[in-house]
Fold this sequence. Notes:
The complex is a heterodimer.
Chain A: H1 6-34, H2 51-58, H3 60-93, H4 99-111, H5 114-127, H6 134-159, H7 162-170, H8 175-204, H9 207-212, H10 219-229, H11 234-267
Helix pairs in contact in A: 1-11, 2-11, 3-4, 3-6, 3-8, 4-6, 6-8, 7-8, 8-11
Chain B: E1 4-13, E2 16-26, E3 31-35, H1 42-50, E4 57-62, E5 65-66, E6 77-81, H2 92-102, H3 107-120, H4 136-148, E7 154-158, H5 166-183, E8 186-191, H6 194-200, E9 203-208, E10 211-216, H7 218-223, H8 228-233, E11 238-241, E12 247-250, E13 256-259, E14 266-275, E15 279-286, E16 294-299, E17 310-314, E18 321-323
Parallel strand pairs in B: 3-8, 3-9, 6-7, 7-8
Antiparallel strand pairs in B: 1-2, 1-4, 4-5, 9-10, 11-12, 12-18, 13-17, 14-15, 14-17, 15-16
Helix pairs in contact in B: 2-3, 2-4, 3-4
Amino acid sequence: xxxxxxxxxxxxxxxxxxxxVFLGVPILVVIPMSFSSAKALTFxxxxxxxxxxxxxxxxxxxxxxxxxxxLVALVASVAALLLGSLAAYGLRRGTFGGRDWAExxxxxxxxxxxxxxxxxxxxxxxxxxLLGSLAxxxxxHTLLNVPLVMMVMGVAIREFDPRIEQVAWxxxxxxxxxxxxxxxxxxxxxxxxxxxxxxxxxxxxxxVTSFIAGKYDTVPKKMFNELxxxxxxxxxxxxxxxxxxxxxxxxxxxxxxxxxxxLKQTIV
Amino acid sequence: MSDIRxxxxxxxxxxxxxxxxxxxxxxxxxxxxxxxxSGSGKTTLLSLIAGLNRPTAGRIFIGxxxxxxxxxxxxxxxxxxxxxxxxPHMTVLENVLFPLGVRKIGGAAxxxxxxxxxxxxxxxxxxxxxxxxxxxxxxxxxALARAIVFKPDILLLDEPLGALDRKLREELQVELKQxxxxxxxxxxxxxxxxEEALSLSDRIMVLNHGKTQQVAAPAEAYLKPAxxxxxxxxxxxxxxGLDGGRTGLVRPERVRLGxxxxxxxxxxxxxxxxxxxQMVRYHLxxxxxxxxxxxxxxxxxxxxxxxxESVAVSWDAADIWPVT
Lengths: 268, 324
């Protein structure tokens, strides 16, 4: 792809830059706007102020939403990490029939349009009486994030030499001891990356949450609802905080995976 | 230290039998090699003995105990793979301590036992290194130390020297043989390398398509192969016609060469002369014969025949082994 004529290369570079600008500018515009002193959304901001951050942190409804989001994201991401990792292990190491079907089933929430997953969860949770409950929200977010964990952990497990496990068993180590003392220390970077992805996946989720959360507000759901009612600059402050969180988390993932990659190179 | 016994061991994957009714007895302290081409089922057989896999039929005994249904953890075996399979996040010493830790042996006793094992494989002084800081040969020594430190009943080696270059491989062959003799541990090695099999083992089991072809001492398998497959797999085979339409095997070392026109030899022409250091290998076309060229391996003393020269080829009747 890097080859080709100078013309195609120039075209490719231009397209890339335009794409980046198109994706990046709206995000970057939000950040100065959040520090604006104006009462309504204006760009450029007339002067610097932290009033919208005060509005956010001073509003108990926003704080409630923040707490709900964090709690749901924490529990759901850990649950998804556990279930997704076990599923990935079984699918990569197992030799049973129907593995492709099982994998397709686990991956479905990622592939099926979210709105359909949302309707399915709405009906399903209503049936078992968890609609509008915190537990129902956590179950739904867990389900949505299992595929992400499976993808990250699936690759990590496939790259891990199965003979290392077999040797550990032959040396007398139980399966659980082997996972704990041999696999996890080596797969830790991937486990951490998978957890971050799951956490962000849950923290960002709005469609399914809007359907099933009932009286519970998460941060994205509240942002969405606020935007429908009125365009309040508090949104830009929340958005800036979320952007900051996401950038930090992705940076952490990059650093950790890069380090793991370096480690792997020295092993080979 | 224990003996190994396989009785009618069969492993089927669908219609394919990776191991087909295999019987084998390995005496206590014996070194036996399972030799076969890739896909012959030799690694399957090893994984069945190691307990990483269950046979479709047959029984496996280690030290007289039926372990057919036992897990790998319950079999007390030392296992070494071609890929070393060291624990990358542990130091050399931690790798060797691992099986002791699992057996609840700790402290100074474990440490001295581990250092002892490292000394046996000549790695003393490197116990603080990580596997990534070691050469291939050193890594394989760590794997060996880890496999013997807990005094396993048997030692299973799956192409242990396959990833090493030739010179190192030959060095480690000698060491492995000495180590095995010192420990007196019953050892089963799997390889596709016939030289390795011949040089290391007390006995060889030749396997093809999951079926036993022959179990014999190296010299016997080489000179008196049970069938054509064994004859061709173990080195170079010359097949010559015998009375009654039968076929006989003559190994290249048993073929004699003399100057052309001399009585008592078959006239032949040298197609190719390959100089191998101590030996010269000749490919010879017997005159009036349509068959494959005869290969002779003759010690190099002073003069070698050149391609195109006429020679006389002969062998003793005693050096012919009839094969089917």
